[in-house]
Amino acid sequence: MPTRELPNFDLPEKSLILKRMRSEQGVMKVQCTAEGVFPQPTIILRSRQREISETEVKVREKGQLFDITASAVLPALQDPEEFSCEVRIPEANYTKRQETVFFPGELSHQILFFISMPFPVPYANAGRSWTPEFMRPGTNKGG
């Protein structure tokens, strides 16, 4: 009986970033990007509070790897809203999901907070900062 060679999957992706890019004239752009994925994945952008009916998906091939981006232009936030991004590779039975909560108002604080944390934080309150216990002064764990 001949053996079947399985494809070589380069998992996981190099990065998966979910961010709000701009908020002007009553609209905002939410974007999710996965980089360095093989084989070509699918991507889904969702909101827990509203339906996202029109999502633009762009795929860029870089050698044998793929970068994929989903973006949507939506009405600006009036209240905090939870967004998620899901990258799937059905051939590898692989799914990765990134979630974050965006708050109405200024963008720079939210984007910097999101990118600077090496792990997802389920919820954050506007105007408050959160520091993991191991990074707080006076807590010398493991050293």
Task: Give an overview of the whole structure.
This protein is mainly β. Helices cover 6% and strands 44% of the residues. The chain has one helix at 108-116; strands at 15-24, 27-37, 42-47, 56-62, 65-75, 81-89, 94-102. The chain has a four-stranded antiparallel beta sheet. A three-stranded antiparallel beta sheet has the order 3-6-7, with no helix packed on it. A hairpin with a 4-residue loop joins β6 and β7. The radius of gyration is 18 Å and the shape is elongated. Mean pLDDT is 75; it is low at 108-132.
Largest beta-sheet details = 4 strands, antiparallel
Assess the beta-strand content as a share of residues: 35-45%
Round the mean pLDDT to the nearest integer and report it: 75
| Number of helical elements | 1
Order of helices and strands: EEEEEEEH
Instruction: Give the overall shape, derived from the CA principal axes.
Output: elongated
First and last CA, distance: 56 Å
Strand order, largest beta sheet? 1-2-5-4
Alpha-beta content class: mainly beta
Radius of gyration: 18 Å
The level of helicity is under 10%
| Strand tally | 7
Give start-end ranges of low-pLDDT stretches. Answer: 108-132
